[in-house]
């Protein structure tokens, strides 16, 4: 700040555009303005002000400056000089007023105040059919005469035949946009300014009904700096210019300029990308539905050519529903049934698993093609930084395995089927083979991947693309974390094609990645409905016996009943679930009885999803009532006068007979009137029930998708778990929690309770000792649900607290003095997911800064400081300089390299025949997540060191949060990938596994539990529950893949931490889904809909046996082998890996079962697809001869011979049918 007294200016101008700017300037100046004699004026952020000037002079100076532009700034200086020198000012032009709302064009002599005048002036410049694009600019651009960007944008827009209209408006007017744009009939709105008055703008966006795009300016450097940056939008900018506008419905954020010489300088290639998108969206608005062409991509999940799925979505049934809705809306598409779609999708996937089938697919009109010359022409035009890695990694496109000669010219052959004007196709392999390098930023997309998207745009001529379900790979391709450049691979793949993305409403974090990196408009869809889990079979019997026991008087009969309960609990393996043993059970009989009773109640009251969701279709009426009952929760039960501690029912039939359900039935279905209810509490609950039921009944999903496809506006909306967050809408463009408010005040307070629970759980497990070092796994999707509870536990461990501003934004983290804290600080290691790194980097920077201060804090018993000193010593001993060693020793936050996604641990773990020792999994985890994040470095890898590994040494416990009623620890692979990965790594480094805990944040009150117990409860209450199984059976084909998913994730946990999965749990999986001990018709279900899924399920169990995780009884081994043989020989199921098949043949031989000639389709001929580490250099399709001859009873020799033959023929690394695709949290 200049010394205003020592060197007073002739005029001090304070330019404070927004109230926040005004506050910041006032804080910076303090009492300076009131003390100075220098003349000053202030414009913006509130009413104008002045000092040390005559009022008429000040008003005129303010008017000059506030209206700006050369027509005002030149006379301002002339007037100031004349007044200062005491000369006449009559000849100086008065201020030229710039209207609060107006329209600008660089070719017009002056701005326009009325839209009608602007349109009349431009009538001869634009064709009547020209796409009309409105650019919302800031009035200050004209005031400051900073029009370079706007002039370039308008010129380029007109050059491509658009009708541009740059306008500014009075943000205070709630109808400013409506008044400014209504008569213009704009097709697209592009926002270039910092819009204010959010509620009004959001309402106007809905009323206008046109797409609203976000255009941003990089203010951290020039254009060269932005192009080189790994992040296209800084955390400081993201909070206000990205997150908030997203919540209003703006989409497709694009950086179009960078500051040079004090004003925005256009990025030409980014401007063209923006305007290309405008053309596409305008075309959607005007092209009749029968003429529109749509491409629809589905996912191959879990890995395997028979598998088509998405998160909690019945994909085939949803596709059938969608084709019908499109047809009704006028699109030229025939209806297709679920069964036909399943068979077609599986044939299309076969083209990637068995490329020798591409010719047949082409002949059967199940493929499209792209001339190689077209691809080469596109490739040649790519920026060098994008083209070079492609060619280096994948070689010459002319040698690709997917090329076929068509009319004498090489073409890429792409599995796809035309359904009228809809092209249905699987997303191509990200890196040559299905499931390979799913999130690896070091690997650019394969030539075929990019050629497929090019074919959609150019050969098929798609007007829009639907990425169907959660989730695909395009948004995870290498490039900037946000604010992507046109040369980043997500944009290269997609081009200007509008994307609409049906996405589960509970996964906000990844949906935001699809919005920001995938250029997508999200169409959120509902989760499955929910019901209480209830109790079944042995659990029901135990519960009944406990109630019988409680009613008996002391004596022999009661003791006999108690012994019966104990025996049944042992038989049901309940002791292990509870963490008890036989000795303790008998030593503490009353405590055991109470613990068992409480546990049964918890399981009975747990939420269980009922099947899957079908896009655009509400759940069945009875399932909606069950969901509403779970949404209302305890207040509804209390209003009915029911006790809180007893289960409502033991199964769904009992639920329907219960008082809560019957009450909802009466008032929500049977038409009884609420005014007949005298109890105000109950009436209020039922009024809320009516609202919730209506919302569940009207998904809004198809309507939102059709609106987007028509070039309309898709309303924004929050996401979340519908039980934890009742009333969350569907059919919305999901937006995120404001990252700079993490953690909220409420979350920090709740985090204190959760942290005390964590300490107490650890002490109970470790003879009263407290932990000194904890690891935390932070996820974006979790943070958006619990708003920073787990982050708060990290802060409480450290002994720090947030400092919030008046708006709830975290400004800093302050250290709590040791005397106030009253306990030792706990050292921490924080592992963040890649999505968390992209979305909550602001909090990460605050956390890194306070951790570094704590590591230097001279305080008795400060374990962070002592651990940092010890590590610094080790690093110095290994050759690092003292200052560098000290800096590195203070880093505690680790994750992927910037721009990298995922760990590869899930894929590697489930590819169980490719590794022998679990240390290989640990090394994979440590390698991908070794990048440190601190104040002086962001994503730093230390040469010759793995700093993540060094910091993990000595970790005693690791913690992860679960806050969704839908996703536990077995629903996806991420829990074992990250929490399990931490266990793997610590065991690899220290020789013993850390204790694993789940911070259970699904309810209002937090609860901390051991991870193994959490898994056991989830498995028993949900996946072994006949209610869940019956609901999945109703889903047909799609339900079979959900069972396979559970087995995959159980296997993942088994490898990650052997203490997490017990032998009896594998046995229960076998007894339920192979032996069908509950007589649920499981085998018939798999045979009818998807025998390969049951084959893969069995192979997972067999792998657990083969790798020594499960010593299954002989009878179980026989049943597995017999069922697998029946499926592969009689039901046409695909077999898996050669090693697994050989082991099954050994099992069969040992039981005297005839060996089978079962063979996976991928072995019937060499796939020709490249290996993960292999660059394609030539055509590699090599047909193999079919096996001949009789199988003898020397299985070991036979297996060894078969393996040798496969290796010699280049098929030893064929596609692994059991590897599942990973999704990121």
From TrEMBL:
Q: Which InterPro entries match?
A: CobN/Mg_chltase
Superkingdom, taxonomy of origin: Bacteria
Regions of compositional bias (Polar residues) in chain numbering? 1157-1167
Positions of the CobN/magnesium chelatase domain: 63-1116
Q: What residue spans carry the region label Disordered?
A: 1152-1175
Give the protein name, as stated in the record: Cobalamin biosynthetic protein CobN
Gene label: cobN
